[in-house]
From TrEMBL:
Xref: Pfam families: FlgI
Localization: Bacterial flagellum basal body
Family: Belongs to the FlgI family.
Bias type Basic and acidic residues, positions: 1-16
Molecular function via GO: structural molecule activity
Protein name (database record): Flagellar P-ring protein
Length: 390
């Protein structure tokens, strides 16, 4: 989609040069840049959207927290939490009722911590979900109602106010002789749309006429590709990769509306992120995840009574007679495994770790054994990837 546009600009047109120059003078420079971006983006090529692999600095979530009371419980509230009785006394005093803390029974009240996430560009009057967690020794928050609770950010300002019935994802039952049956957690609940936003959080994404894009997975190659892709459509000198995670972009239109339009176009660009060879192992669950870029060098493995040889053979593929094909070199992976602990040999080249995993799965090798095998391959220096053990 990009080459035809360049060809059309360079092709001389009979008698149309002056008219084309007059049109360009009539349009402001930001409008020309945005129009070129829209034409050059076109259908997405193979790769990932910039909006999916990068975020704009200054556009972020904000964490909110508050302390409140859940009332209306059926005897499952706090029993010995002194701060709960003090909180009830303070709340009643604010409502015009003076009750000493010693005279307050909190069996039906639970002190809770209320947390929420304020998304970027949340406007005053919109609603967000909140999570309510017991702070004392309450047994259950089932049937409780959260009393009006201010939610503050790290700067101490109140950004939202939460209130409403608490919804639990479980239940519990207790018999006369102490028998109990509990499903899920009873001291943590949610209030969908339970907080009302009272104040907007600042989102300053355009500073000094520049935008900063941050990669979700920092990588020098990906940052360079992102800067090159932006410079190709927005013009040379518009984008610069500052490090493995940050790309600075000069905005052609520094107005608020122009910056939003420019970002909308940038998010639709597609690049091919550089893959990182990595094997992630969770020993607690026996989970193994290997990327497609993982390969191994020639190696021979014997695990218990299991013998493995891995490698590849190179062959020459000839096209059929009178065909328009070309002679090509074809690499064929070979994996030979024996369960009798016999002798084995090693071929010259390595093979894909994914192929080894599939072969091991076909033989019924447990995930625990696979973890031990992969760790041994890494220690032997044959695993061409980063090994991450959770």
């Amino acid at each position: 989609m990009r080459q035809p546009l360049e060809t059309r600009e360079r092709r001389p047109e009979r008698g149309g040069g002056a008219r084309r120059r007059s049109v360009r003078r009539a349009l402001p420079a930001p409008a020309i840049a945005l129009a070129a971006l829209a034409l050059l983006c076109g259908p997405a090529a193979a790769g990932s959207r910039v909006g999916d692999i990068a975020r704009v600095q200054g556009v972020r979530d904000n964490q909110l927290v508050g302390y409140g009371l859940v009332v209306g419980l059926t005897g499952t509230g706090d029993r010995s939490a002194g701060f709960a009785t003090q909180s009830v006394s303070t709340m009643l005093e604010a409502l015009g009722i003076t009750v000493p803390p010693a005279d307050v029974s909190v069996r039906n009240v639970a002190a809770v911590i209320v947390t929420a996430t304020l998304p970027p560009f949340a406007k005053a009057g919109s609603r967000i979900d909140v999570t309510v967690s017991s702070l004392g020794d309450a047994k259950s928050l089932k049937g409780g109602v959260l009393v009006q609770t201010p939610l503050r950010a790290a700067d101490g300002a109140v950004y939202a106010v939460a209130q409403g019935p608490v919804s639990l994802g479980g239940f519990g039952a207790e018999g006369e002789r102490g028998n109990q049956e509990t499903v899920n957690h009873l001291t943590v609940g949610r209030i969908p749309s339970g907080a009302l936003v009272e104040r907007e959080a600042a989102a300053d994404f355009l500073r000094g006429g520049r935008l900063w894009l941050t990669l979700q997975q920092p990588d020098f190659t990906t940052a360079r590709r992102l800067a090159d892709a932006i410079a190709e459509v927005a013009g040379p000198g518009r984008a610069h990769a500052l490090d493995a995670a940050t790309v600075a972009v000069s905005c052609p239109d520094t107005t608020r509306d122009g910056a939003v339009r420019f970002l909308a176009v940038l998010e639709e660009l597609t690049i091919l992120p550089a893959g990182r060879a990595r094997v992630v192992i969770n020993e607690r669950t026996g989970t193994i995840v290997a990327g497609g870029q993982v390969t191994i060098r020639p190696v021979a493995i014997a695990h218990g009574n299991l013998s493995i040889r891995v490698g590849t053979q190179t062959a020459v593929a000839q096209p059929l007679p009178f065909a328009r094909g070309e002679t090509a070199i074809v690499t064929e992976s070979q994996i030979d495994m024996r369960s009798d602990g016999g002798q084995f040999t090693v071929l010259n080249e390595g093979t894909s770790l994914n192929e080894i995993a599939r072969a091991l799965n076909a033989m019924g090798v447990s995930s625990r054994d696979m973890i031990a095998i992969f760790q041994a391959i890494k220690e032997a220096g044959a695993l061409q990837a980063e090994l991450v053990v959770l």
